[in-house]
Amino acid sequence: MSRTSPDLPAAFIEQLRIVSGQHQQRKILTDPADCWAYSYDNSRGRSLPAAVALPESTAEVAAIMAACAEHRIAVCPRGRGTGTTGGAIPPQGGLALSLERMNRILSVDPANRVAIVEAGVINQDLQNHLQPHGFFWPPDPTSAAFSTIGGNLACNAAGPRALKYGTPRDNTLGLTAVTPQGKIIRTGSYTTKSVVGLDLTRLLIGSEGTLAIITEATLLLTPIAPAETTLRASYASMKEAAAAVSRIMAQACQPRAIEFMDSGAIRALGELEQNPLPEQTRALLLIDVDGAVNGLQESVDAIKAAAQSAGLLEWLRAGSAKEAAILWQSRKALSPLLRKLAPGKINEDIVVPVSRMAELLDALERLAGQHQLLIVNYGHAGNGNIHVNLLYDPADERQTAAANKCLAEVFELTLSLGGSLSGEHGIGLAKRNFVDLEIDTETLAVMRGIKSQMDPLNILNPGKMYPDQSGD
Ligand SMILES: Cc1cc2nc3c(=O)[nH]c(=O)nc-3n(C[C@H](O)[C@H](O)[C@H](O)COP(=O)(O)OP(=O)(O)OC[C@H]3O[C@@H](n4cnc5c(N)ncnc54)[C@H](O)[C@@H]3O)c2cc1C
Predict the structure, then answer these.
(1) Res 411 pLDDT > 90
(2) Ligand 1, from 103, 143, 170: best to mutate by most atoms within 8 Å of Cβ?
């Protein structure tokens, strides 16, 4: 078992200071006031680490991990703490290991469409750096301005354009990572084809910092399309909007993004929406299309034809990049805005097959009525990935009990429709005890076996991702 005491042995702290460069005291923080900033993430949970390490190289991370293994200290890797599931919270105290100072873009290689970056690079900084080269890295979580590439990889975090361009798993060629024993490993290759060895790159991506600490990534870049446009479709009902998504996905033209907002989300946006919607609007689709200059109009026409239905109230096309940004502004504002609607928010990111989305949204409306809760839904409709937000007041016992009961029913519903509990946020602490609803015992045992093979002392992000078995 890893050490659970909030206090760490002086010999361990001294060892950390030595491996981090003795004179650089600010690389190891032990004052609780300094550690406080590393005690929470966007899940609103909190647990204070006993110390924080701020390494600046892979070699330093390796030396720190070796010291942690020697002293059996629990380690919680961390990007910028924007995760929604408590993954970057250290429930056992121990050491928070923040990658924030490993923020260098090491190379950009347009001929091979590759960039090598350190794990602490902020997603948006990378995109800004790539733009003059005519490339981008596809994963675009709404938190791109704050979250790190390491955090994006650890969670397989994605965003709207995953629909066309895929998730981190589809856009990463290789990783440098540090094992819980402090060994440096290199996975994948610099090339887009390679079948040598097991695919540890895809294994580490999405493992939420439980198997190894990612310190560098070799990322596959995509050229920026010469033309793009944003479309907005307003519908009289969620059912009509969901059916339109199915029809759009069933035709040949691939949109870059199809985002969905239900009537609760539209109401929440209220005055923020700068382009007034038809009064009867109960659901909204935001659709991005990109491609060659010549083919763009044809793509828009094909998507518009598929989106047509008796319930389509309005079809709007942004006339410029500025107008497109305004249309997207409301969608991007939604997540933080909901925090203002109710003091408590359970924010899930379930996924169902696109063709089952209408059934899902219908059933969610029924659940909201049964539990007398406000449920607001929006998200990446083209992937069937819906952010279901149960809004409630934690000070109200009835609402709290109803929200928790409703959550379990939302998960049961999702699985009954052939879906999955999380499309991009991951499991962390928040959802660990629901995982065995989706993954059977035998499969879970294989996963636990991999964890104990890589981390026999269970010191790397313990207590995350797997159902609680032994109070770990
Ligand atoms: C307003 C807002 C919008 C968001 N929108 C989206 C969205 O559209 N799509 C989406 O997918 N997510 C979204 N998120 C969730 C979150 O931003 C992402 O999961 C993001 O990838 C987390 O990055 P981070 O650097 O903040 O990681 P952290 O929150 O610090 O860590 C997340 C997890 O990754 C692990 N980890 C971090 N760095 C490393 C590393 N280098 N090696 C190993 N493990 C590591 C941590 O231990 C933890 O388990 C949103 C969050 C907010 C607050």
Answers:
(1) yes
(2) 143
CA-based radius of gyration for the chain: 23
* Dihedral of the alpha carbons of 445, 351, 366, 394, in degrees to the nearest 10: 70
Task: Provide the domain count of the chain.
Answer: 3
**Mean pLDDT within 210-235:** 97
270, 336: one domain? yes
- Note whether residue 446 is domain-resident: no
Which residue has its alpha carbon closest to ligand 1 atom 23?
A: 151
**Which domain covers residue 38, as residue numbers?**
10-101
Point out the ligand 1 atom lying closest to the alpha carbon of residue 215. Answer: 41
Answer yes or no: pTM beyond 0.85. yes
Residue 301 contacts residue 236 (beta carbons within 8 Å): no
pLDDT at residue 470 in the model: 65
pLDDT at 4 over 50: no
* pLDDT-based confidence at residue 3 (cuts at 50, 70, 90): very low
Spatial distance between the Cα atoms of 402 and 389, rounded to a whole number of angstroms: 13
> What's the CA-to-centroid distance between 354 and ligand 1, angstroms?
25
Whether 393 and 377 share a structural domain: yes
Instruction: Please give the average per-residue pLDDT across 345-359, as a whole number.
Output: 94
> What are the backbone dihedrals phi and psi of residue 78, each rounded to the nearest 5 degrees, phi first?
-150, 135
pLDDT band for position 206 (cuts 50, 70, 90): very high
Give Cα separations from 419 to 196, 246, 412, 440 (angstroms): 32, 16, 10, 15
Compute the distance between CA of residue 234 and CA of residue 339 in angstroms, rounded to an integer.
Answer: 25
Cross-strand bridge partners of residue 29: 52
CA distance readout (Å), 384 to 263, 269, 271: 18, 22, 28
Q: Any idea which residue has 């339109």 for tokens?
A: 244
Q: Which helix (H) or strand (E) holds 364?
A: helix 357-371
Closest CA to 196 of 184, 186, 206: 186
* Distance in Å, CA 88 to ligand 1 centroid: 8
In a domain, 469, yes or no: no
DSSP 40: B
In 3D space, the residue among 369, 393, 365, 366 whose CA is nearest the CA of residue 377 turns out to be 365
**Which of 78, 171, 385 for a ligand 1 pocket mutation test, highest count of atoms within 8 Å of Cβ?**
78
Q: Is the pLDDT of residue 7 over 80?
A: no
Q: Which amino acid is at 233?
A: A
Instruction: Give the pLDDT of residue 322.
Output: 93
